[in-house]
Structures are given as structure tokens and as C-alpha cells.
Amino acid sequence: MTFSAKAKAKMSPLSRLGRGSVLAAALLAGTALSAPTAQAEPAAVRAAPVPDLVCRLDAEVNFSPPLSVRVKETEVTGHIGYLDCRSPSGAAPELTDIVFGVDGTGRFGVFPPTFSVEGNGVGTWNTGEVGSLYFKGDLKQGSPVPDRTVTSGPLAGDGINGLQIPTTRFDKITPDGVVGFDVIGQVCFWPGEKGRCTAF
After folding, report:
1. Residue 179 in contact with residue 62, Cβ under 8 Å?
2. CA–CA distance, 189 with 102 (Å, rounded to integer)
3. How far is Cα 193 from Cα 171, in angstroms, rounded to an integer?
4. Is residue 22 within a helix (H) or strand (E), and if so which, with residue range?
């Protein structure tokens, strides 16, 4: 028996196990290096909300008695018209126009001068269906429309937002104060989360 053969014969089982473990580790490392790297899945892009309706706003509010530094709360009447409506979501393409008769409370804040309204409205859609809404908020130039919610009828539960341009008419200014506003703009009806109405 040669010296090499004697050396192999004298190797302990533990030594042979160690050599096998080293070989197995090397093979596993090679397999890991050659395996394709898993591609991370791209994060899901969140879809922007789409409104049920987009409408032209044409409204008039009247204060009786006029709001002023002396009269800070009064009755508000008038109408809120949603006209030339279209349905980006396809939920209500048949709804094109409605005019709500409104009544509620008008308020005047002195510092800074602020006009606000709160109340309810009832109107009839072009389809003959009756609807109602609740509104509350300030009348500011180029500001968001007062918070509005459809409380009954088609699209009940939808929230409404948009952009408004309230204008004090000359025939609505008296020595006693401001008698009312005309308001134009654009509004959107949203079934859930509200988006940016001006995007539509």
C-alpha cells in the first residue's frame, strides 16, 4: 500500500464529512449565482377617481334681510342650477340638467369679510325624477363650491365639489348691505372619493 493510500485509509469519517460539506456549499453557491434574479413587481398605479357627472354651475342666492355688519345672519333663498351635464363614468348619461330651489341661512363674518350659506334644495331632473341636496360653505371668488351632498333621487349619496365664481350684482347691493350673489362655475358629482373637478 502506498503512502497516499494509507493516508486516505487513516482519514476519519469527520474529515470526509467536512470535505463533502465544503463541496456541497460550493455547489449551492454556484446554483444561487446562476439563478435569475427575481424581478420586483411594479407597485400598482392607483386610478384617479372619475365623476358620475360634470355640470356647468349657474346659481343665484338672495339674502333677506341683506347681510351687513349689522345683520350677520339672515334667510337665504334662490336656486342652484346644474346644466349641460355629461357623465365621464357612464353612471348617469341620461341626467343633463336640474335646477334646485334652495332655502336656508346666510351668514356674514366681519374679520375677514366672509359670506357663507347653508341649507337644502329640491329640484327636478330633465328625466322627471326629483332630487334633493344639502349645501354648506363660503362664497369666495375662485374658491371651491360649498360642500354639497345629494340626499335623495338619482345619484343619492354622491358628494359634489368644483370651482365657483360668485359675483355681487349691482342690483343686489343696497345701503342696507348685500342682497345676494350670482354664481357660475363647474361642479362634479363623485360616488366616493372626490377628485379634482377641473381635470374634467
Report:
1. yes
2. 18
3. 39
4. helix 13-34
User: Using CA atoms, how far apart are residues 57 and 39, in angstroms rounded to an integer?
Assistant: 49
**Look-up of cell digits 446554483:** 31
Residue 63 and residue 177: Cα distance in Å, rounded? 10
* pLDDT at res. 43: 52
Is pLDDT above 90 for 89?
yes
On whether the CB atoms of residues 74 and 67 are closer than 8 A, the answer is yes
Burial of 171 (0-12, 13-18, 19+ CB in 10 A): exposed
3 state DSSP class of 123? strand
Number of helices and strands (H, E) in the chain?
2, 9
The model's pLDDT over 47-66, given as tens digits with 9 standing for 90+, comes to: 899 999 999 999 999 999 99
Burial of 1 (0-12, 13-18, 19+ CB in 10 A): exposed
The residue assigned the cell 464529512 is 17
**Rounded-to-integer distance, Cα 125 and Cα 127, Å:** 5
Cell numbers placing 101: 330651489
Q: What pTM does this model have?
A: 0.74
Sign of the torsion angle spanned by Cα atoms 166, 77, 97, 122: positive
Q: Name residue 83's beta-bridge partners.
A: 56
